[in-house]
Specification:
The protein has about 130 residues and is of the alpha/beta class. It is built from four helices and five strands, in the order αβαβαβββα. The protein has a five-stranded mixed β-sheet, with helices on one face. It starts with a helix and ends with a helix.
């Protein structure tokens, strides 16, 4: 009988430890991304911003094919996404946003940074600012 109680106690400790690890992982680490994802439409763009966890930072690259610096920035963001997998990196063509007139080639490439559904920073004409 005493041996059975010790086994029960060991099982209970093991169960508690596993529960604590699971809870810690869910609360502390959140989802992991690790890649630069392509958004297909303005609706998908808004959905990502609005439905993502409030603690997740989202970096969106607005680009267009043939605009100077856009390909280089996409390559750089692909590398950063692999290194910073807790940040969600996305890209969308300006013409697919539904607000393409706001994103002329003069302001591209553009980076928008969101957290908790709010725009916290924006960088227009990134290649002019950072070469």
């Amino acid at each position: 009988l005493m041996n059975g109680e010790k086994e029960d106690e060991a099982c209970l400790r093991k169960y508690r430890k596993r529960c604590m690890q699971d809870m810690h992982q869910k609360l502390s680490f959140g989802p992991k991304y690790g890649s630069l994802s392509e958004l297909q439409s303005g609706e998908q763009f808004l959905e990502v911003i609005e439905k993502e966890r409030k603690t997740t930072t989202i970096i969106v690259h607005i680009y267009e094919d043939g605009v100077k610096g856009c390909d280089s920035l996409n390559s750089s963001l692909t590398c950063l996404a692999a290194e910073y997998c807790m940040v969600r990196f996305c890209k969308i063509k300006a013409s697919d946003t539904g607000a393409g007139d706001r994103f002329s080639s003069d302001v591209l490439p553009t980076l928008l940074v969101y957290r908790g559904g709010e725009l916290i920073s924006n960088f227009l004409s990134v290649t002019e600012q950072f070469s």
